[in-house]
Give the backbone structure.
Amino acid sequence: MEKLIDKQRVVRYMSSRLLRNNVLKLLFFLATLFGLIVLVVLLYRIFTQAIGWLNIDFLNNFPSRRPENAGIKAGLVGSLWLMIIVAPVSLIIGVGTAIYLEEYAKKNRFTDFIQTNISNLAGVPSIVFGLLGLTIFVRELNLGRSILAAGLTMSLLVLPVIVVAAQEAIRAVPNQLREASYGMGATKWQTIYRIVLPAAIPGILTGSILALSRAIGETAPLVVLGIPTFLAYLPRGILDTFTVMPMQIYNWTSRPQADFQHVAAAGIVVLLVVLIFMNSIAIFIRNKFQKRY
Amino acid sequence: MAMTNGNRSYSVREMIKENKKKQNGQQFIEWLMPKLLLLTATISVLTTIGILFTLLFETFIFFERVSIVEFLTSKEWLPWNEETGSFGVAPLVTGTLLTTAIAMLVAIPIGLASAIYLSEYASEKTRKILKPILEVLAGIPTIVYGFFALTFVTPLLQKIIPDLGIFNALSPGIVMGVMIIPMVASLSEDAMSSVPNSIREGALGLGSTKLEVALKVVLPAAASGIAASFMLAISRAVGETMIVAVAGGSSPVFTFDVTKSIQTLTAYIVQVTTGDAGYGTTVYYSIYAVGMTLFVFTLTMNLLAQYISRRFREEY
């Protein structure tokens, strides 16, 4: 009887399938590495360009027409000032929205609408928020190019991110805790304030710090607001004009003199250090305080 | 009956009264908080309304001065001359589409390949190391990518393509693609991970290789999520500003040549707002019309993404 299965053919066919599997696995792996390689090249480039330009003077100097005198002091202080507005405003509105949606809102069309609206806001380009800020805060409310105007614009920009993070954190608090609290005679708000929020705060903070670090690195909306880049003094109140690190970097990047490339690189290093610092706080909070129920 | 507490004495009636007062305060808070919280929740709605109305209102003023037909059909964008200026948005749109297309050519294959590797091949341990590092790419400010594109990628590309301009569409497009890789990878990986293991095991049990499982079983099952991630990536690339503003140039030309200086919708808004276009000039209002175009593009993409992932989701 003739063999039903041609063994040689099967072996040949199988090995070609396995070979294809291995070749593509390697390709997929290389694709994953590609991103990492670019990251390493980018960081290496920027750090080598910044060496020699990054020193105490750079942190202590105001912008200057001469690259060797230029510094990031105004930008660094301005970014901190910006956070003084963005952090409380976006946190209060964001967490408030999240509590409302998770604890109070009934499942109806209005709630659905708010939820869809938030996810759509998250997809609006940041520069459009700049146009909103320019029209409403800078012109209509006459706040000028102040820290307040920029801070409110930035707060609206990061709001969706904070809402979603806070919602997830609140949702992760198990219902037994709420029910136990009600069982002890606590009211709804007492339960939210004393039980749900404390349990959700690590998650809320982690998400919010990441959102704030996005606000620190964001440039486009501030360009639209017309935030200046050449300031030789520090702001004294929230109605003063100011500048931030990304704006300074943008200004240095677009200057033709080659030396300003190094100044820009040094500015980027300072910005990245601030971002790494903020992200490590977020990771620390997550690892240290996040409870799994 | 009276109870003594230190020096003060309370009658039961007084205690009840006091308790009532406390409860009234409590009740007031219980009544007030939901309303306050609802107020904060409406701010996000007000933001959307604010965006829509400012864009519509100022765009309307723009169209009182420039005909909408010219805006949509003219192929020349020469806004700086009040007399002979021409406002055809086409060059800005092609500039945007050009950089977006290049970014997608980078981000979609590499992002999807990374997603397949992370979801189908990588061990739990490798994934836990690789994924956060990949996501660092998404956390780097876009101005840093702009700097990188202008000072590193463009000179590098000029060695390969000698007549590449200092400002061009290619270099910011590629860098933008790299920036979007983590977004595509992470969203696609989520979609692929939610395909249940029993389906994979069924295919493996029938003798499939891992590659066949990934391409013929998991990819089709996760197709809606993956397609949605592409839409969101396109929307992100269309709205990206600083990379193209720094490295793309400011020449609104109707061209599909990637080696030439171009201008995107976003870069135009940046150019006008950094310059001194006086408040009330036609150029000033033109940024709202351009912003409106941008908003319509990205919103369509986002809604499409939501529609795809809702309509074509495979439920398990």
Summary: The radius of gyration of chain B is 28 Å. Chain B has two domains: 12-65, 86-311. Chain B touches chain A through 83 residues (CB under 8 Å). Chain B has a mean pLDDT of 87.
